[in-house]
Amino acid sequence: MAKKLWGGRFGKKTDPLVEEFTKSIQYDYKLAKADIAGSLFHIQVLKKCTYLSAGEFNKLHKALKDISHSLDKNTFKFDKNSEDIHTNIQSILAQKVGALALKLHTARSRNDQVAFATKVYCKLAISGTLGLAEELTEALGSLGAKNGQVIIPGFTHMQHAQPVYLKDYLGAYIEMLDRDQDRLEYISKNIKLTLGSGALAGTPVRAEMYEFKAGVEAPDNSLDSVSDRDFVIEIISALSILAMHLSRMAEDLIIWSTKEFDFIEIDEAFCTGSSLMPQKKNADVLELVRGYAGRLYGNLVSVLTMMKGLPLTYNRDMQLDKEPLFNSFEIVSSELKVLAGLIKTLKFNKAKIAEHLKDEGLYATDIVYYLVNKKIAFKEAHTIVGKLVKYSLDNGIEIKDMPEPLLKKFSVKFVKKEIVKLFDPIVSVKSKKSIKRG
Questions:
Q1: CB 210 within 8 A of CB 45
Q2: What is the CATH number of the domain that holds 365?
Q3: Is the domain of 333 the same as that of 218?
Q4: Domain span at 381
Q5: Which residue out of 69, 274, 302, 328 is catalytically annotated?
Q6: What span, in angstroms and rounded, lies between the C-alpha atoms of 256 and 221?
Q7: pTM for this model (two decimals)
Q8: How deeply is 179 buried, as exposed, middle or buried, from its count of CB atoms within 10 A (0-12, 13-18, 19+)?
Q9: Which residue of 27, 75, 415, 418 lies most exposed, with the fewest beta carbons within 10 A?
């Protein structure tokens, strides 16, 4: 067991059950790089205020850099028996510089150390997530451009609604992803990296000593700084919304891939089979994307619930924000990667889509506007077309096959040769002028 960062007041060894119950090394090892970054800032503070000599600073700086390099090279020795990653790193530092490592904790508490490291981790993880989201956005944009003239049925309530460009359908998910990226960028921008809170009351070091060009600063309120986990909740919330968007996309693709729709073919490399039924080609990747949204929601609720009753300032409960945070980033990152790959393989069954576009119901609204353009009030035109559609369905006759005298029974404004032209997906989509298309 690594030597603890506390213990002078205790006369007994910690019960092994407590050791096992309270340790967090099994998941907070992910904070290793961020923790070292905080220590590198902190020794600069200690040097500025003469708690460290230039020689001591140099030794600690080299040792911390060496530990950081070992993380980069995957040679760092994670001690699963350490209380946490901070203790683990402190122990390795002590092996390198001896008693000098004890000075590192001057004007510092794990309370602000953990908060700082978690914020650094979040900024880095957000940056990585933004890059992956952009890759998926580009894949969707490329797929839309490649199928720029493809028109598909649009849906409301899972019923045929109106024809739309496929690129606009895919573009809707691009808009969602753009909002997701904006949310995450905003959260990252507003995460303040602070040092100098100590356990809760601040430190003897003057505030200006904590000012760095890298955006590190002294806290405005040290009590809030060590006990704030709003940024964790905001991040998991933003990731939950992103996961919801990915789940909706997955659901659309699952539906489109069914025999009943048959709009798309998903590459076999992104599907799985059945252990019993040899014919099956299952969109398991998409189903898991859909399912993982629930995990993200659970992570959000768990941290909100954990924080709701905590008195100021730091409480050990806050240790439990790490697993939901790390897990949320991991899930979303994996989803973004696999979806970007899957989207690039999609092929569209244009013949099957064309069959769906024959449904006259898709053009009912176009007929309404046809009447509106002939000076009939919208609501009246809506009622006329509704009756026309009902007659068509009840009598098994398509509108475009009705003779003109029959059409005029619904409205004298109807001219058959004009009506027939409306049952065209190209005419329908081009009639929509309000959309800002690049």
A1: yes
A2: 1.10.40.30
A3: yes
A4: 358-430
A5: 274
A6: 53
A7: 0.94
A8: middle
A9: 75
